[in-house]
Structure formats: C-alpha cells, structure tokens
C-alpha cells in the first residue's frame, strides 16, 4: 500500500488488523507511528496501547500483548519496533518460536491492531513477513516524489514562520541532492538543512537562492558523503558510479582526493574523541562542525576502523604525490582506491 493511501485510511479510521511499516525514511515512519497513536483514546492510552522493543521482546511477551483485550474500547493497539525476525535475526526466537508467531498472526483477535515498525529493509524470505503480507498491510516508506517533497519542504518552512518562494524551494531541493538516484540522503537530513537556513534569517527576511548557496553543503560535498558511505558499505558499483558522475560534472581526481582526505580526517578525529568518552555535543563543538556534517561523520565512523582510515589516508597521500610527479594516471589511482577498499 502507498503511504498516501495508508494515511487516508487511518484518517478515516479504516483500520486493518496487521501492518508492517518499513524503509529508510525514518521521518515518514515516525509520522505513521504517531498517526496510529492518535487512534487510541488518550484517557485509555495506558490500557489500549502497548509499545514493544522488537530487539528485546520474546514469544511469551508478544503473545501476552496480542491476546490482551481492549479496555472500554473496540480496539487495542500493539506497536512492535524493529522486530528482529523481520530483519532475519534470531536473538530471542528459534525456528519453533517463529512458527508459533505465524500461528498467532493467523488467529489474531478482531479487537487487536498489530503494527510492526521497522527502520531499514526487511527479510522478505521470512515466514513472518509472508504471513503479514498475506493477511495485513505492508507499506514501504520510500523517498517522496517531486511534488510531495516540494509540499513537505514548504510545510517545514511555513511551520518555522520563514518565507521562501516555490522556485527557491525547488532550488533548495536540487542543492540537497535528495532526489539523486544514488543519494543516501533522507528527510531527516533535509530537515537539518532547513533548520540551518531558518536559523540564519531574521523573522521578516525571506530565504533566497543566494542564502541557500552560501549556507548549504555544496553538491560536491554531498557526493563525497555518498562516496564514503558506499566505500564503507563495500559497494563498488555505486562507488564507481558516484566517482564517474563527479568527474563528468567537471571535478578533478586530485580535488576528489583532497575532499576525501579532509572527510576521513574528520572521521578519525571523531573516533579518537569517542574512545576518550567525550560527549557528542562536546566533540561537535571541539571540531567546530555543523550538526548536519557532524551527524554524517558520526554515522560514517561506524563503517570504518582506525587502521582502515589510516590506510586510506596513506593511499590518498601516496597517490597524490605520484599523480603530481607523473608516476601514476589519476583515473587509475581513483579506481584502485575504490577496488582496494570495497573488497
């Protein structure tokens, strides 16, 4: 089911018994989750709404929640967040438990509404996914289309009482790179850029293209973020695509190397300070990073160990020297970088 249809059904209280909401757009997932909560009578919230941690719950806790009847209402809602079996993991469940879960879904009471909330992908081979897909509603939170994204951005600026024209919103969206096919940017990232722009202007000042151009991370910087993400994920195909797109748009290999070196230096600095148990806010202030950039670096740091970062930085430094001395062809140096560190 598409997101718009799901929202319309919930608005009209056209409620199914089982839902699976998943995908990379956490902002939209949280929106749907909050929508489900509004369906519960606030006075009966403690009785008719249960939120389970899917990483920690077990079969008996799950069964108990699902089989509990509503109190002074027609429906009882159970929200299960990041259920491990939907990710293909079995920390608290064995094969027998999974079969029992499927039976529970097959016999779920008419008074129960069960909502699985999963951030990221799900394992569609699992029996529990197939059961949900057969008996309930599955909705993937994908990137917004162009018109929906324009309206969403317009609402975000309006909620912050900041003026911006439709043409400048379109320019802003293009600058974020959100709609690029290879982009890993989410609405949460776009919101951070909106917050940054809104905090810059005075109450009676409109956001213009010049302000956007001066304050936002450039398209090239977004490409560098994506390239580092893809190398960290060992995705050579996407890495080569991003690199070639940057070259086609006029970026030099040495320029790309310089930006990669700068970003990897940020990553290793963050890792060192994290090892010293320094609070995140203090690290951000110490390194004088914008929240958007800092959040990106923190996330990217999880995909690299210190030895790997040092190795990449040494390779970039050596290649930079060889290219400038005519000892190595620049395209070859970049291709070796991706091939070597995507293994």
UniProtKB/TrEMBL annotation:
GO biological process annotation, one example: DNA-templated DNA replication
Catalytic class of the enzyme: transferase
Record's keyword annotation contains Oxidoreductase: no
Pfam families from the UniProt entry: DNA_pol3_delta, DNA_pol3_delta_C
Catalytic activity: DNA(n) + a 2'-deoxyribonucleoside 5'-triphosphate = DNA(n+1) + diphosphate
Known EC number: 2.7.7.7
Entries under InterPro entries matching the protein: DNA_pol3_clamp-load_cplx_C, DNA_pol3_delta-like_C, DNA_pol3_delta_N, DNA_polIII_delta, P-loop_NTPase
Record GO terms (molecular function): DNA binding; DNA-directed DNA polymerase activity
Ranges where the DNA polymerase III delta N-terminal domain occurs: 19-141
Residues covered by the DNA polymerase III delta subunit-like C-terminal domain: 221-341
Family in the record: Belongs to the DNA polymerase HolA subunit family.
Protein's UniProt name: DNA polymerase III subunit delta
């Amino acid at each position: 089911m598409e997101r718009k249809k799901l929202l319309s059904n919930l608005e009209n209280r056209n409620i199914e018994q089982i839902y699976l909401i998943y995908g990379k757009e956490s902002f939209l997932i949280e929106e749907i989750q909050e929508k489900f909560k509004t369906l519960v009578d606030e006075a009966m919230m403690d009785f008719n709404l249960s939120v389970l941690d899917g990483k920690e719950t077990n079969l008996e806790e799950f069964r108990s929640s699902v089989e509990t009847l509503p109190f002074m209402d027609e429906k009882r809602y159970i929200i299960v967040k990041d259920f491990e079996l939907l990710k293909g993991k079995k920390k608290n469940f064995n094969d027998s438990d999974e079969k029992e879960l499927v039976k529970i879904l097959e016999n779920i009471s008419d008074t129960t509404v069960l909502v699985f909330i999963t951030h990221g992908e799900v394992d569609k081979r699992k029996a529990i996914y197939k059961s949900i897909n057969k008996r309930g509603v599955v909705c993937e939170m994908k990137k917004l289309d162009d018109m929906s994204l324009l309206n969403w951005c317009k609402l975000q600026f309006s909620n912050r009482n900041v003026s911006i024209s439709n043409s400048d919103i379109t320019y802003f969206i293009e600058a974020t790179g959100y709609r690029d096919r290879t982009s890993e940017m989410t609405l949460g990232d776009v919101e951070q850029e909106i917050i940054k722009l809104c905090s810059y202007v005075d109450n009676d000042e409109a956001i213009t293209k010049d302000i956007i151009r001066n304050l936002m991370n450039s398209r090239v910087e977004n490409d560098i973020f994506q390239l580092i993400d893809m190398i960290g994920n060992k995705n050579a195909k996407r890495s080569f695509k991003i690199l070639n797109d940057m070259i086609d748009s006029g970026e030099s290999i040495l320029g790309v190397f310089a930006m990669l070196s700068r970003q990897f230096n940020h990553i290793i600095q963050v890792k060192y300070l994290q090892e010293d148990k320094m609070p995140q806010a203090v690290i951000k202030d110490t390194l004088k990073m914008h929240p958007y950039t800092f959040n990106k670096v923190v996330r990217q740091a999880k995909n690299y160990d210190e030895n790997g970062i040092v190795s990449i930085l040494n390779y970039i430094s050596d290649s930079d020297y060889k290219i400038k001395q005519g000892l190595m062809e620049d395209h070859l140096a970049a291709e070796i970088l991706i091939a070597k560190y995507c293994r």
